[in-house]
Amino acid sequence: MAVNPSGADMKAFLAAGPDQPIVMLNLLRFAPGGAERYDAYLAHFRPFAEKVGASVVYFGHGADPVVAEHGQGWDAVLLVSYPSRRAFSDMVRDPGYQEGTHLRTEALVEAVLQPTVPRG
């Protein structure tokens, strides 16, 4: 399963409204030793997020699900607020940011990266 967006994914993402503010939902399933590796990724990620005006809203490790099918629980959840879809795209294209994405890839066996928009 892919843990990073492809070029086609990013093109469709931007087409949905490049100036639209989003909160990106990250559902994370770690590889063995991945939680520590993901912490290293977050340390790398934060300055690049701040550079585009993004901020971490919440990061927490998952506990046993109350309602879920067997195996549907996630190891961690990360919510990041971006001022726009374009800001997210600018961040992931930054060569400095890209130098550390291997940390995320190595940390995860599965991920969901889903933009959310305010409702009401």
From TrEMBL:
- Note the Pfam families from the entry: DUF1330
What residues does the DUF1330 domain cover?
35-109
What InterPro entries does its record include?
A: Dimeric_a/b-barrel, DUF1330
- Please give the superkingdom of this protein's source: Bacteria
- Sequence intervals crossing the membrane: none
> What is the protein name given in its UniProt record?
DUF1330 domain-containing protein
Whose protein is this, by species?
Answer: Pseudonocardia hydrocarbonoxydans
